[in-house]
Design goal:
By secondary structure, the chain is α+β, with helices and mostly antiparallel strands. The protein folds into two domains: 76 residues, 434 Repressor (Amino-terminal Domain), CATH 1.10.260.40; 50 residues, no CATH class. Helix content is 41%, strand content 15%. The radius of gyration is 23 Å and the shape is elongated. It starts with 9 loop residues before the first helix and ends in an 11-residue tail after the last helix. The relative contact order is 0.10.
Length: 178
């Protein structure tokens, strides 16, 4: 007899859904802000998937969760917290002591060509999901995600239009036969 449930992170998912609903955001708005696909956020909220630590951190920051609530959500996700790692009594005031984090982002200079783009707009801005058809079954895979403010998106539209206009060869009027 298996003890696994179809929703191993059900309580975590319920809490994430309540946090999203508390700030009156749709699934699409919250997933755009966290830069994850809406079906993945749905799986987190359904309790069938556990968010990676970095995704959970982004969601907690986006939902403006208090430190105590964040600790509880980390515990529900099954992640070790800094409080429990330090024995919860190593600091004089007993408060949460974050450690500095360093992110190394690899830069890939290759040009990725896309077959399609999905545009998501929410109150935070615009997210462009560039996708390609890959494999023998032409499965659609994201190749890049780019987020920007709405003002930046408007400037990008104008820049693209100007570049496309200038790339078209100027045609001279045809000579009339007299």
């Amino acid at each position: 007899m298996s003890t696994e449930t179809p929703q191993p992170f059900g309580e975590l998912g319920q809490r994430l859904r309540l946090l999203r609903e508390r700030i009156q955001e749709t699934l699409e708005d919250a997933s755009g802000a966290a830069e994850i696909d809406p079906p993945m956020l749905q799986a987190y909220e359904d309790g069938t998937e556990r968010p990676d630590e970095d995704i959970l951190h982004v969601l907690l920051h986006h939902f403006d969760v208090s430190e105590d609530d964040a600790e509880e959500l980390w515990r529900l996700a099954g992640y070790q917290s800094l409080r429990s790692e330090k024995g919860n009594s190593s600091s004089e005031d007993g408060g949460f002591q974050p450690t500095p984090a360093m992110f190394v982002l690899p830069i890939d200079g290759r040009i990725l060509y896309s077959d399609m783009v999905h545009v998501g707009v929410n109150k935070q801005g615009v997210v462009l999901n560039f996708m390609q058809n890959v494999g023998p079954d032409n499965k659609i895979m994201p190749v890049s995600r780019v987020g920007m403010s709405k003002d930046h998106a408007r400037a990008l539209i104008q820049l693209l239009q100007d570049c496309l206009d200038h790339s078209e060869p100027k045609q001279l009027p045809e000579e009339k036969d007299s």
